[in-house]
Amino acid sequence: MTPKISIIVPIYNAEYQIRCLLDSLLLQTWSHFEVLLINDGSTDESGAICDAYAEKDHRFKVIHKENGGVSAARQTGIEAVSGEYVIHADADDWVEPEMLHDLYEKAILADADIVFCDFYVENNGNSVYRKQEPPSFSPEVVLRAMFQRLHGSCWNKLVRRSCYSQYGCHFPKGIDYCEDLLFWVQLLQHPKVKISYVNKAYYHYVMNETSITHNYTRKTYQVRCAFYNQLCSYLPLKGFEKELRNARLSVFVEGYMYGVLGNGEAWKLLWMYNKKAAFIDSKSIRWQVGYISLALGCFPIARRLLRF
């Protein structure tokens, strides 16, 4: 029987987390789904764990591939799915038992191409509910909201599989930062896309605040820059100037915060490319003072203020 929903799970060295997600999928109250476990060249026991689940349940399928990054893993999954609808999940998260049933039911009732739902953020034992109701069901309005209060993830949104081919949407190879947002930018530019929403949270997103602090390198910054360049190639420049300015500013200030950009380089980049977003678009007084301090060469003050 052809599955109604395909769940794509990119996996890389997740041996200590993956069982929680897979067990939560086994507990789904609705059984018409398949799970594509994309083992992206893991060097730990992740691949063996995935194989064990596939042996126990025919709905779990494993694809072992060389490491190519999360975007390539997602795209590998997309090219292998057979479900009517697609949703993604990350290896260190988990889902509520009713998720697939409720999202699919809403998709059928509304004849929707995309169904949004709310989610939980899990952080050191604290669970925070995040409302994700779109401001309207207009694709353009939803796209703008993706740069503001809507999370750009693929794991709290069910998508009709045919949208990928119909609108030529894909996950760009080598862009392993906000690759899911780049997918939405491609899809939501099409006015015929039909959107719906379920007023309930099903997905538990586990936040790891320390990982970026310890692992942010010059290569990380370069990947962020590649994301911005790809975003520019997807978004029409006219009408989305502010979104593009703020995306570039975000990449810039993150590089400065984590010490990858030196004071002189940051000063130059601020004046050359980011002054309008920093001095005009920014709504936070603390951040504005931080940008002004950087512009004036008061680097110790700037570094204290320009932080999350």
Automatic annotation (TrEMBL):
Q: Which domain of life is it from?
A: Bacteria
CDD domains in UniProt: Glyco_tranf_GTA_type
Where is the signal peptide, in residue numbers? none
- Coiled-coil intervals in this record? none
Instruction: Give yes or no: UniProt keyword Translocase.
Output: no
Keywords of the record: Glycosyltransferase, Transferase
Q: Please list the residue ranges annotated as the Glycosyltransferase 2-like domain.
A: 6-166
**Entry annotated with the keyword Protease:** no
What this protein is called in its record is Glycosyltransferase
Query: Origin organism of this chain?
Result: Bacteroides difficilis
